[in-house]
Automatic annotation (TrEMBL):
<dbReference type="Pfam" id="PF00931">
    <property type="entry name" value="NB-ARC"/>
</dbReference>
<dbReference type="InterPro" id="IPR051677">
    <property type="entry name" value="AfsR-DnrI-RedD_regulator"/>
</dbReference>
<feature type="region of interest" description="Disordered">
    <location>
        <begin position="270"/>
        <end position="289"/>
    </location>
</feature>
<dbReference type="InterPro" id="IPR002182">
    <property type="entry name" value="NB-ARC"/>
</dbReference>
<keyword id="KW-0902">Two-component regulatory system</keyword>
<dbReference type="InterPro" id="IPR019734">
    <property type="entry name" value="TPR_rpt"/>
</dbReference>
<dbReference type="InterPro" id="IPR001867">
    <property type="entry name" value="OmpR/PhoB-type_DNA-bd"/>
</dbReference>
<keyword id="KW-0805">Transcription regulation</keyword>
<dbReference type="Pfam" id="PF13424">
    <property type="entry name" value="TPR_12"/>
</dbReference>
<feature type="domain" description="OmpR/PhoB-type">
    <location>
        <begin position="16"/>
        <end position="113"/>
    </location>
</feature>
<dbReference type="InterPro" id="IPR036388">
    <property type="entry name" value="WH-like_DNA-bd_sf"/>
</dbReference>
<dbReference type="Pfam" id="PF00486">
    <property type="entry name" value="Trans_reg_C"/>
</dbReference>
<protein>
    <submittedName>
        <fullName>BTAD domain-containing putative transcriptional regulator</fullName>
    </submittedName>
</protein>
<dbReference type="InterPro" id="IPR005158">
    <property type="entry name" value="BTAD"/>
</dbReference>
<dbReference type="Pfam" id="PF03704">
    <property type="entry name" value="BTAD"/>
</dbReference>
<feature type="region of interest" description="Disordered">
    <location>
        <begin position="1"/>
        <end position="23"/>
    </location>
</feature>
<dbReference type="InterPro" id="IPR027417">
    <property type="entry name" value="P-loop_NTPase"/>
</dbReference>
Amino acid sequence: MEGGPRVPEQRRPGAPGEPDGSAALRFGVLGPVRAWRGEEALATGSPQQRALLAALLLREGRTATAAELIDALWGEEPPSQALAALRTYASRLRKILDPGVLVSESGGYAVRGLGEGALDLAVAQDLATEAEKARTAGDLCHAREVLRGALARWDGEVLAGVPGPYAEAQRVRLEEWRLQLLETCLDMDLEQGCHAEAVSELTALTAAHPLRERLRELLMLALYRSGRQAEALAVYADTRRLLADELGVDPRPGLQDLQQRILRADPGLAETSAPAPESAPSPVRPAQLPATVPDFTGRASFVRELSDVLSSASGAGEANGGRVMAVSALAGIGGVGKTTLAVHVAHQARAAFPDGQLYVDLQGAGARAAEPETVLGAFLRALGTADSAIPDSLEERAALYRSVLDGRRVLVLLDNARDAAQVRPLLPGTEGCAALVTARVRMVDLAGAHLVDLDVMSPEEALALFTKIVGEERVASEREAALDVVGACGFLPLAIRIAASRLAARRTWTVSVLAAKLADERRRLDELQAGDLAVKATFELGYGQLERAQARAFRLLGLADGPDISLAAAAAVLDLPVDDTEDLLESLVDTSLLESAAPGRYRFHDLVRLYARACAERDEHPPSERGAALSRLLDFYLATAAGVYAIERPGDRLVDHLEATRYPGLRFTAGPAALDWLYTESSALLACVRQAAGTERLRRAVDLLWAARDLAESGANSRQYETTAVAVREATRAAGDTRAEGRARIALTGFLLVSGRIRQASEEARLAMERATAAADPTAASWAAQDRGLIALHQHRYADGKMFFDRAIEGFREARNGLCEATALCNLSRAYMGMGNTSKAIEFAQNGLAVHVRVGSTMRLANGHYALGVAFATAGRHIDALAQFSQALTIFVDHRQRLWAGTTHFRIAETHLKAHRPGPAAQHAEQALALGCIGGDQMRGNVLKLLGHALSALGEVDRGRACWHEALNLYEANGSPEADTVRTLLEPATAA
């Protein structure tokens, strides 16, 4: 960036020469030559007059002689009256500009006394200089932001419409500088790990500047880091052929070296200097360790042992110099203090891991252990990876995680693991990092792990912990009673802490009083001495001290299956006002029987939850209250999800045909808040659906799954949604509930369609229609007809599709469901397209869009614009199609419909390609690949096939063929007939 153009010196506002009280002059040359006084645009005259102004503005404030200016405006053949014309232009400019700005001097002219920031080129140069300084200082985020600001100063072609050789030379110079700035900016994008985002922009730039090798080099690196090695190598092949054909030369050595490094899969190519997100000023250093307890007691031998292992990775160990990835796995029964010990050791070792500490509760002892891919997603975000750069599969996430940690010294604490299989993908795998794992089982199959078996405390340690909490004075006078207390607690640290905390909070109690309570075996579980029962006996002490309302809350909240619970959902379980619920929950947090996961969210330790459920089975009277509590929770989720559905889909009468609820839900007035709730509650909501399967609450569970279909359609929580839908479907079959089974199959069909599993969707939709018809459920029957129509479109059975859509439209009209009718009309448009009736396709798409507008739909309005865009594109009305797609895309993005947004980018790319604009087509296809599309791997294959065509049209034949090869693999794996089409494209004769 140091080679940027120089511009005239600028003075500060208020300097001599500016009229008092006047608005400042501003000029633009990075586009058409323009001038403004404040916000008022000034007339800059004829092209030759603008050429004179531009020549003076770009002359650094120096005087240009008349001869120099004539040469600049007209070159070697000026008109006979060139000098007179020059003086006329200067005179006219003086009348436009402020006094003293255009001066005559030594037979020439100069522009002097401009205010700071008066020329767009000067501003761009200042920003470029600032960006260079920030980059040198290592602040890439700021450098990128500032440099993008500099590039934003360009407004089309430099000196647009200005004649003369001088203007032409400046155009070339300033365009070259702009490209240099772009390359610098894209280089920093790659340094920060934003390679996936950069591919789209680089694809468009290389199409516009095919002989610019630096852009080709950046594109190869971006593709390689995006996992697209074949395409990266194809870019090199295209470049070599193009350079040979056009210039008769080979690629420069740097490009050749990059190709060889890609062929070797050089690990250095995966490195990025600053994988922080764009908004971060410096590399992210997570500090996720929970707070260590101030009264940590004993465990000295374990602390030394674990610290020694950590030092082998941190560099403190002299024997290895910190060249290993150390793993320690702590095993023991629940409540034995594994987490407390691990957190304490981790805090002591923080200084040895300056690049951060990661923490996660893997919930291994619960029914729904954390999925490794979910944890990896959270870790990658904590390490600064952008959402758009996080891949979908477990293997790709684990590989990216290890790459991001390479060269860093990070400590990872994996708490409460289920087994070694859950842990393995979460291990850093690089030297200098370390992992601490806690679990109830010994991980003998975790290769290379240092295993530690953590037993209960010794009597001395247990008494020391009890004394620290209760106070030396109270324990010293009743030492024997204190030993009785810790003995009754089974020497389990968690039990001791609960007992001691209760005593410390009750100043009127003595230690003997507490010991007497614990000595009463009726207050402890009979099986205190056996395994996990010791944990339950420990919790019995804390539970026995609760007030009636607290105990009820403890029991009932433990019944819910979700990983955590919100305050509003807890209020539904307890059937209490939110304020009263919060008081109860916070009091339970104080007893350590409940944890505050985040403001307004609460969770049980998994073993505490089991104990709470045992208490509910034993103590809740009448027993029916357990089912009633879960029924209220289901009602809360169903009522709230139905409200979210109604906000997102005004005019859709589905909510009128869902199971009735007795307990109310939350009410939202704005779409963003409603969607925030749905996605935040997704795991707990789906857990509630699964828990209700097989109970009398089954129908409401099915309807909740249906009302929460956005979780599947948006691409969020897809795996959980599918698992839940399958479980609910099986429950409806076992129950023999035909109506519920039909609706459950509709929910599953919707997910299968989104993921592109058409054959499975076809069977589910067929059975859904059968069950809905048998159950006389017209709402479900209409939805099933809609789904069967969509499946027919995928299978190119357009007449069948029309039949199903006609049936769906009839049903929706009878139900006065305007939104679903609009959707079906738009889908009917696609059937007519398939049958070759383009005019009918446009007519029905327009009708569907009109209904969308009439009913006031928000997110679904995008589907109307999308459908009309597809119809226009089919009819060859490309401009109209792009206008509709643009409107659809804006709405999909606003409503977080990532997969629909990607699908719309694909349609935009398709339209550009049909209009013979391969550059924009390739750019939008890349964005579709980055976002994903409705239709899973089949649609990804379609995008890659289209991208291959666009790249081939741009002369990048080898990269295009690489896309076709990848598309062929997807089609073959999916059994798609499109595979034959791609094989034809890849035939040597066709390629030539």
